[in-house]
Amino acid sequence: MRSATYQGAALAAVACAALAVGTGCRSLSNSGGMASAECAPGECAPGECHADGAAGPAFAGTSNRGTIVRPQIRGEGPHGNGSGAVCRDGSGNCPHGGCPNCEPPKRWSEEWYAQRSGDPVSARQVDHAGKQWPPYARPRGEKSEFSHIYHAAHYWPYPYVCDDRAYVRTVLALQEHNGWTEATTMYEYHFDADTQEVNQPGRLHMRWILQNPRPEYRVIHVQTAENAALTEARLAATRLAAIEQVGEADLPPILPRVTEPLGRPAREIDAIQRQIFETIPEPRIQYIAVPTGAGAGGN
């Protein structure tokens, strides 16, 4: 009875191989480089699932999921080790798009480790006696492999430190960008209050903007006014002043910015300082003369 089963399975495998001429199927094993990755839906040729892409002998068996064909790869025996196993249903088709769920890879094989390469390295949560152990959120599934635990401990804190470093770099880049934006802004006190022309402090500040920032931060921001007409007048005056200094060919971008000055105008600071100096009391040293002469006694 057993011999008849093996003979029937072998005949089925030979028939599938005869129908598979000119087609190819990628093996589930990562160790064999397939010469042909083409595999039409429902058509996987057992005779062409070999590491060198050429047809060769294969072992055929039966299971409750259909016919299993294991190609002999790299000197494997007729039973193989589960690497490159391809499952078929009764019609010779490949269910599940190449049968990854038909037969699991052998434990500790190359495919098995490849499937578990992304497993988290931590304790697993299990159900026991109606409770979850531990009671807080943890991954579930098989326990971590010793090699994975050793890998995580050996290269600690990688890769967990990468997210922290990326966050710090992002915050620093944002702070740098905001700082350069603040430093390259023409505020309302850089313009004449009546004509909106760039005044002398504004020209000096514009000169600094055109010379000092790096090219990616060399942008002139102009504080917007109370209405659109005044804002356009400030932008036009800034453009003319910049053209006078560097020419139109090297003119940097000029953008409006809705903001307020963080500091105070120099005129206000000067007035405050003058009042402070005017109200400073005169310094007086409290001095009491020591009496001298014969009546003082002693030295």
Question: How does this model look, in words?
Answer:
With 299 residues, the protein is of the alpha/beta class. The protein is 34% helix and 10% strand. The protein is built from seven helices and eight strands, in the order αβββαββααβαβαβα. The strands form three sheets. Strands 1-2-3 form a three-stranded antiparallel beta sheet. It has a three-stranded parallel beta sheet with strand order 6-7-8. Strand 6, helix 5 and strand 7 form a beta-alpha-beta unit. Helix 5 crosses helix 6. The protein starts with a helix and ends in a 21-residue tail after the last helix.
In short:
The protein has 299 residues and is α/β, with parallel strands linked by helices. The chain has seven helices and eight strands; from the N terminus they run αβββαββααβαβαβα. The strands form three sheets. It has a three-stranded antiparallel sheet with strand order 1-2-3. It has a three-stranded parallel sheet with strand order 6-7-8.
Q: Which strand order do you get reading across the main beta sheet? A: 1-2-3
The Rg value, from CA coordinates, equals 41 Å
SSE string, helices as H and strands as E: HEEEHEEHHEHEHEH
Determine the strand fraction and express it as a percent band: 5-15%
Count of β-strands: 8
Average pLDDT: 74
Helix content: 25-40%
* Count of helix runs: 7
Low-confidence stretches: 1-6, 9-101
Q: Report on the biggest sheet.
A: 3 strands, antiparallel
Question: Whole-Å distance between the termini?
Answer: 136 Å
Structural class: alpha/beta
Morphology call: flat
